[in-house]
Amino acid sequence: MNLRQTSAEDRAVIEGLIASAPWSHVHLDWIDPTKLTDKDPFILATDGQIPAGTLGCPPDLPGVAWVRTFAAAEGFDLREIWRVLWAEAVSRLRRLDVDIVAAIALEDWFEKLIRNAGFKRTNSVIFYELEFEPGMVANRSSRDSSHPLRSIRSADLEAILEVDGHSFEPIWRLSGDSLSVAMLQASSASLIEDQGKVLGYQITTSSAFGAHLARLAVRPSHRREGLGTALVNDAIKSIREIGLDQLSVNTQEKNAPSRRLYENMGFRTTGKEFPVFEIQL
Questions:
Q1: pTM of this prediction?
Q2: Fewer CB atoms near the end CB (10 Å): N or C, the chain?
Q3: Does a cis peptide bond (omega within 30 degrees of 0) precede residue 41?
Q4: In a domain, 216, yes or no
């Protein structure tokens, strides 16, 4: 078995492997992992000229990496492919000073692999959904009217990154690249500011199936002021204007303030939940 770091030229090979492999994992977010093939570590295993498996887990921010994708091709031993790829990835991640690797287990077979590798369950991702009824009026916010709400502009990226960094634990924070991709995909993106200081923001994407609240963050110093409610209401208003009747969102099981906000606004759990695992290197 030969192992090598991929490059941008390998994107088509990785796409084909992920699409055809009987065992294929792709991380749950808006980043296409095949666009990360020029990032380290993104490893391809081959048997001669035949792609046998791939593992991509490049860090998005210093010190933390997510398993972005893993696939094992037909005719190869799943556990052996994982073993050799994971060993190589760990070696590369340590050289990059990555301390924590996280993964969301979307299927049982992947959960078994990462548990056997030493990953421990630390959280879970819970899914919520809000269906708009005819004549439904959005919940009113108690926020101070002196805090203006406006659409996000590309020049706001650094300020939004600062809010994001204060709002989430390290494994849940986003890089500028990830936020830029989310902003490009957004159907609705707005922020609340006070005298030029961004207090919170939301980014919502949409498709033919409905809309998804991809990111919501409010500075800890300004929580419980109704800003989160105001931002979600702005997303609801925007997506209703384009004819959509449903908004989904996911959040962490241990994020009690986030869950309380959505439940108070009428979101209901869908019953879908995926465990989150971490390992210290």
A1: 0.91
A2: N
A3: yes
A4: yes
Q: 85, 102, 118 — which closes off a domain?
A: 118
Residues contacting 133, CB < 8 A, separation 6+: none
Identify the segments of the chain with pLDDT beneath 70. 134-146
**Range 13-21, long-range pairs (CB < 8 A, 24+ positions):** 13/44, 13/51, 14/42, 14/44, 14/54, 14/56, 14/69, 16/51, 17/51, 17/53, 17/54, 17/71, 17/73, 18/54, 18/69, 18/71, 20/73, 20/74, 21/53, 21/71, 21/72, 21/73, 21/74
pLDDT at 138: 52
Give the pLDDT confidence score for residue 274 in this predicted structure. Answer: 98
| Angle value at C-alpha 128, between 123 and 132, nearest 5 degrees | 170
236 and 200 both lie in a single domain: yes
pLDDT attached to residue 276: 98
Q: Could you identify the residue written with the tokens 């109704």?
A: 226
Q: What is the pLDDT of residue 74?
A: 97
CA-nearest of 186, 190, 158, 166 to 242 is 186
Q: How far apart are CA 259 and CA 252, in angstroms?
A: 8
- Give the type of residue at 28: L
The answer to whether residues 58 and 92 belong to one domain is yes
User: How do 64-66 and 69-72 pair as beta strands?
Assistant: unpaired
CA 171 from chain center: how many Å?
A: 10
H or E segment to which residue 154 belongs: none
Inter-residue contact 278 to 118 (CB < 8 Å): no
Same domain, 237 and 140: yes
Domain finish residue from 103, 118, 133: 118
